[in-house]
Design brief:
With 297 residues, the chain is an alpha/beta fold. The chain has helices at residues 2-7, 9-22, 30-42, 46-61, 68-82, 109-122, 137-150, 163-177, 193-210, 228-240, 259-267, 288-296, and strands at 97-102, 127-131, 153-155, 181-185, 217-223, 245-249, 271-275, 283-285. Helices cover 53% and strands 13% of the residues. Helix 2 runs antiparallel to helix 3 (30-42), helix 3 packs antiparallel against helix 4 and helix 10 (228-240) packs parallel to helix 11 (259-267). The protein starts with a helix and ends with a helix. The structure holds guanosine-5'-diphosphate.
């Protein structure tokens, strides 16, 4: 788990404040709870996740000695907050698996799609990407360059072609060419929220008509350095399209990795992958145990 520790170095730094409180001598009194609350909040857990933990510590340990037991309890609470019943990617039982990827421009969406395609290819999957962010010429070009590097197919058309039309072609290609996984890029920003919502919906509809059970995943890319704003973004996107999980990008450069707790708590969305660098190999499956261990050990 070396990469996880590396990727979490900055977040772990902020979490040091939580650990300091847990190592204090004395009783679990109001002053202790206030300080723990402050430090959890500072570590970007958000109000709800912070309040949940504080309430449980108060109930379980009021007036008891601060020590190993309290520390282990907090650690378990954090671990439980992240527990997911759907770790890893959900694959189609048969036929192509369709993974839609959404996220605002600049979040790291294109890079994350490339990293995911690369990872799947290394796992032996026949993978292709679909360039459905047709509103940005640069997005199509960038994805083309990545596909070349990875050595996977790309399904694309010109700029301003209907994204749903590209998605349609991509699904046809997936069936005809027998792709195991098709990763679909989508628009990152449009004139209005309604417009963006409609385009995402159209892609969703086309994909589900073409391939039963699709999309099998709708992953939302969030920039870890946005902290609590990433949570707000996730809430907005969830109104447009039902997401199944998060790719948390740029964790390596951020001290705000604690936002994963808030995302899970507020939206019930599991973090499926984390981005820990700019290279093709810098995407790792999220592991709640390793995440919490990296903060505590
Ligand atoms: P998009 O506009 O959402 O498609 O964003 P891009 O994929 O083009 O990424 C924006 C910038 O963030 C680029 O410079 C990427 O190299 C960088 N980036 C993306 N993911 C990561 C990551 O996990 N770690 C770091 N350090 N940089 C990243």
């Amino acid at each position: 788990f070396g990469w996880f520790k590396r990727g979490l170095a900055k977040t772990a730094g902020v979490f040091g404040g939580v650990l300091d409180v847990l190592r204090r001598k004395g009783k679990v009194d109001q002053a202790f709870l206030d300080e723990l609350e402050k430090q959890l909040y500072r570590a970007d857990l958000g109000t709800t996740a912070t309040a949940t933990i504080i309430d449980r510590v108060r109930q379980g340990f009021r007036d008891k000695e601060v020590g190993e037991e309290v520390s282990a309890f907090v650690r378990k609470q954090l671990r439980d907050l992240l527990a997911s019943d759907s770790p890893g990617l959900a694959y189609a039982a048969s036929g192509p698996t369709i993974v839609m990827v959404a996220g605002v421009n600049g979040s790291g969406k294109t890079t994350s799609i490339a990293k995911l395609a690369n990872r799947l290819k290394k796992d032996g999957k026949n993978v292709a990407v679909a360039a459905c962010d047709t509103f940005r010429a640069a997005a199509i070009e960038q994805l083309t360059v990545w596909a070349g590097r990875i050595g996977c197919d790309i399904i694309k058309q010109g700029q301003n072609v209907q994204p749903a039309a590209v998605a349609h072609d991509a699904c046809e290609a997936a069936k005809a060419r027998g792709y195991d996984v098709l990763v679909v890029d989508t628009a990152g920003r449009l004139h209005t929220q309604t417009h963006l919502m409609k385009e995402l919906e159209k892609i969703h509809t086309v994909v589900s008509r073409q391939i039963p059970g699709a999309p099998h995943e709708v992953l939302l890319v969030l920039d870890a350095s946005n902290g609590q704003n990433a949570v707000v973004q996730a809430e907005q996107f969830s109104k447009s399209v039902k997401c199944s999980g998060i790719i948390l990008s740029k964790l390596d450069g951020s001290a705000k990795g604690g936002a994963v707790f808030a995302i899970k708590q507020k939206l019930g969305l599991p973090v499926k992958y984390v981005g820990v660098g700019e290279g093709l190999d810098d995407l790792e499956p999220f592991d709640p145990d390793a995440f919490v261990a990296a903060l505590f050990d």
